[in-house]
Amino acid sequence: MARAWTLASRPAGLPNDSNFAMVETPDAPLADGEFRVTNSWLSVDPYMRGRMNDAKSYADPFQLGEPMTGGAVGTVTDSRNADFPVGAKVLHMGGWRDSVVLGGGTTSPAGMPPVRLPELGVPDQHWLSVIGMPGGTAWFGLLKVAEAKAGEVVFVSAAAGAVGSTVTQIAKAKGMKVIGSAGGADKCAWVKELGADAVIDYKAGKVLPQLMAALNDLGETGIDVYFDNVGGEHFDAALATSREWARFAICGMIDVYNDFKAQPMQYLPMIIGKRVTIKGFLYPDFYAQVPEFNADMAQLITSGAVTGRETVKEGLEKTPEAFLGLFSGENTGKMLVKL
Amino acid sequence: MARAWTLASRPAGLPNDSNFAMVETPDAPLADGEFRVTNSWLSVDPYMRGRMNDAKSYADPFQLGEPMTGGAVGTVTDSRNADFPVGAKVLHMGGWRDSVVLGGGTTSPAGMPPVRLPELGVPDQHWLSVIGMPGGTAWFGLLKVAEAKAGEVVFVSAAAGAVGSTVTQIAKAKGMKVIGSAGGADKCAWVKELGADAVIDYKAGKVLPQLMAALNDLGETGIDVYFDNVGGEHFDAALATSREWARFAICGMIDVYNDFKAQPMQYLPMIIGKRVTIKGFLYPDFYAQVPEFNADMAQLITSGAVTGRETVKEGLEKTPEAFLGLFSGENTGKMLVKL
Question: What is the pTM of this model?
């Protein structure tokens, strides 16, 4: 039997347990070209919230009653496909379930074909974190979208999250000054451990005065790059402290995913005087450059410049709980489910 | 005697008459290299509001008790400079006064040296409007910042203003579809006359539903380019209706110049899903490309594709009134003072 989490109902605002239902289906025999992957690691990510709505946001919506999809790593346990033999490790989008049939005439979950894990000497679960989608989001956003350069000042929100913690480490490895924002003393301490030059605790006070104080302490007049994971107050504070020609890479606005509520923005006119460039981006826009990212990131990992940290929940049953934890800030680093 | 408007006091919020004072100074004899320009046209522009504050916004602040500066066109009436002989027509920044001494050891007002008007067959006052700074702002913003292309849908706010009316005409001349926003039936009718495919009256209702209705009428699914002159509600509506890879050229946010009040923004997360690029810019960033702009614009004017329209106040006394009129929407096209 294969077990999978399906979308039981669409949430209004913050999702809860009632939006998910587990279904069991018997294992069907494989057709030619198909192979069965038994999952060992599942990813839960903030972008999935958008797919729970009945409207295209970043990606097509999840269908009611159908298994949800998401990044997963597993091992081929049955195969009628020579490219994916038994024992091969596979990165694919058939997450939210314990096993999945891929290849042949099946439709790839989320429209993304499975790939075999390259042999780059990194632990399996890192393919869902630092060297996977969140890590790539960090790498492409910082280096390709914002074009951050050595010596520049980078401000990153949700710096203890999967993407933000990787941004912090890449930026330090590439010679930038980093100010990270995180919620609570523990997370802030960890961001500091990652190498951030200054850390702001957004739960301890307003972002803007803390950001200005951090810049002052570092002897800097403003920020050159903002890597946005949260939107709202952080985004406004970044505008307020922009230097001329600052670049913003906008990757997530978790503050506003659950309710498209109006955010009070005071410093948008800074865009003009400082000639700020603000760019939204999505990881899939950079598929063609993933090998370049993988090669650089494997080196950063094996040299110790970047360390992957994961918050792990054990067991398929915990998948909704892991996902919901993203919105209450439960994770330090990447949130994963281990099967 | 030379008469000049000085900054008498710094405004809090909307400026008024008491912020300006006229002073008279005797005409000094010219030193070597100097020349006297008797002004015939003065420009008043929204960006001057920022310079009335005691803080660098786009440009250095005006100094209390000193003559204000701004674009002006005049004729050399006295000269000890062979490059600017008596009778030469000059575009310079010594506005807000009836005559000014330039060249030699004088400091160029606003740090921008005077230039002789090129012979391109356009009326003098157009050098302060369609073929001057506002026209250049339109041309560079639309074509170089937003990189608008034939067939794309361009939304422009303040489409009856100096910059917006030129954006509308350039966009039509270059094969784009244009939706303009203006305040009141008269201005809307004029924007339609300029060639806009659809016009929104922002005084008659909310921007977003009107913009969606206009797109629907034109059979379009969204906008590709937004040329922002006002910020606030227009900016939010442009985000809400962005197509993928939309580009925003942010040139002015007149809604928020007078008070840096928080604006409620609901659609910022669209930046991510639609991969919107938002860029602030200032005309001076493009000085090196002004000859290219002048050549193209002279052709657009002489071919009849772009017509300059000016709202003219007569007499130096009316300069503050003309300036204040910008914030109550008194002008259709460029606001000028004729001496």
Answer: 0.88
